[in-house]
Amino acid sequence: MYAVDCNGRCEDCPFTWCSTTPAARPSKAQQRKGWRQDAIEELDDLADLYGIDAGQVRL
Hints:
Blueprint: H1 28-50
């Protein structure tokens, strides 16, 4: 078994850095906040690309 094969779910994992506990999923509020932040960054990039003042765009 190689490190790239490890999915963190095996019972007897030989890797010390591997955690057998499932990864915590972000809450719905954290997901929405992340999506909103991603959208704001994307709009800012598009504003720069098209020469629009991002401060004048209502989000």
